[in-house]
Amino acid sequence: MSTPFAIVAGVGPGTGATVARKFASAYPIALLARNPANYEDAVRDIKSAGGKAIGISTDVQDADSVKNAIATAQKELGGDKIAAAVFNVGGRFIRKPFLELTQEEFESGWEANGSDIPIPGPHFFSQLIENRDFSRGAFLFSQAVLPHLLASTSTSTPHPPTLIFTGATAAMKGSAQCASFSTGKFALRSLSQSLAREFGPKGVHVAHVNIDGVIDIPRTKEWMKDAGPDSKIKPEAVSLMLHFYIRTGNGLADDIVGGQIADAYWYLHTQPRTCFTQEIDVRFPSTSTVGTGVY
């Protein structure tokens, strides 16, 4: 019997890499990113630790590219079923007065134009961040992985097959001058909710993780420098205290647990079918929902 594998789309030095390393402790794993440099270190680390991993250059905005990535993962990892899939693709961030926003800039929040935008300075609220697609990419990725997640529901596996989307604060509230970014993130969150209601009863756990803050990675080094040591979320600090507000159908629960950001994703994956959480927030207590969610 073939072994189910895990797949993470949108691997970089932050959340994507730490989530990939976490899931690689249990499954063979495929790491997807357009630029191979984004996943090469993580693939090497996983292999060095005795895991099985491959990196695949993939454009999630292109249906053929996504399908080819799945086929390559199946061939190289020796399995046809998926145990867990994570959509961690970020987005183009524009902070601009609405009346000055062009149609192209607005649509870039949810419709990819396929370009990479350089960061010209440290003031990220006035800059454009590397572009990725929210809705189209999430749609194509979900359509590609869900048949293989559904196939895993009939397999004797320790945890339910899981599809997780990385979200941001902008999915919860549209901040001033963030119409484009918020539109895309609202769409991603809505998609996750719809899929959860459709595929949850079929045994696939679909969840949305709201990263409520800025992840401490190289490209955010100059951001919020004067905001204090607890202003960013550190993805690799093992003893880090994360604040999870866990939303379930029964209301809002509050708990503090130690561990990595990746532990939140693993926690979702290991939930039994009788208790699927659809959404959690991950934040430092000190960030107090002010972040835009950059990961």
Fold and architecture overview:
The protein is an alpha/beta fold and 295 residues long. It has helices spanning 15-24, 40-48, 63-77, 103-107, 135-152, 179-199, 261-269, and strands at 5-9, 29-33, 53-57, 82-87, 162-168, 205-211, 214-215, 232-233, 241-248, 251-258, 279-283. The strands form 2 sheets. It has a 9-stranded mixed sheet, with helices on both faces. The chain has a two-stranded parallel sheet with strand order 7-8. Strand 1 (5-9), helix 1 (15-24) and strand 2 form a beta-alpha-beta unit. Helix 3 runs parallel beside helix 5. The longest helix has 21 residues, at 179-199. The radius of gyration is 18 Å and the shape is globular.
List keywords for this structure.
nine-stranded mixed β-sheet, 295 residues, 7 helices, two-stranded parallel ribbon, single chain, alpha/beta
Give the overall pLDDT as a whole number: 77
Q: How many distinct beta strands?
A: 11
Largest beta-sheet characterization: 9 strands, mixed
Q: Work out the helix count.
A: 7
- Fraction of residues in helix: 25-40%
Physical arrangement of strands within the biggest beta sheet: 3-2-1-4-5-6-11-9-10
- Detail the poorly predicted runs: 111-133, 236-259, 287-295
